[in-house]
Amino acid sequence: MSGQQDFYQALGRPEGPLPTGLHTWNGSDPGRRFAVYRNNVLASLIDALADSFPVVQALVGEPFFRAMAQIYVRECPPESPILAEYGDRLPQFIRQFAPAAAVPYLADVAQLEWLRIRAFHSADGTRVSTATLATVWADVEHLPDRQLTLHPSLQLIRSLYAVVSIWAAHQGDGALTTPHQIQQQLASLRLDSPQQALLLRTGLTVDLIPVDAGTHAFITGLQRGLTLGEAMAQASQQHTGFEVTPGLTLLIQQGAVMGFSDPLTH
Question: In this prediction, what percent of the chain has a pLDDT beyond 70?
Fold first, then answer.
């Protein structure tokens, strides 16, 4: 093990040995100095998680969140020096974290918040031109055999819980949205009502757009590389009464369509 790896691993083991060869320039206790550094690193990572998952923290309270985050940091240390990329495994961690079981929708809210981060830091994209769109639309015969290129920021979430409404209840001016008002809004929701949504970045804003289950299945198919016809057929099989027009119109109006492939032959 290299000295860097030894040092890195020791940061996550409060009860473990000090890194090999650790010493201080002024003769002070290296163990105490390292403990301070370790605590500062731990606090910084917990703070980063709190910044990335504010609704999760609001739902369980700061003391619970920080205690949970401390365990997460030790079990799932950063794999990148970019703090904005830290927290991708938190939703799955919460699903397996027994003390969080009392809030069954917590992991899905964490997933929504993480997808917002992914969307915000995604690459830019340019919507399909009006001329290209008109040409493709006019070729009705081959339209079902085309694949769509979607905006890199486009993310989808589907939950057994009302995660879109839960997240929305925590938004707004803090002076106007007090904890009591948030609790009142949550109390009025059917928290076990399934919801799904599309997330898309426009400029520096990530929009969260509720969609129906059929539209979610349709766009998921497009993301996986299915043609328009294949994605429509899949959504229709999974959801009775599926209509393609609302979902396709939404993608185009929101600037999520960047292009079309040539018709695929089978």
Answer: 83
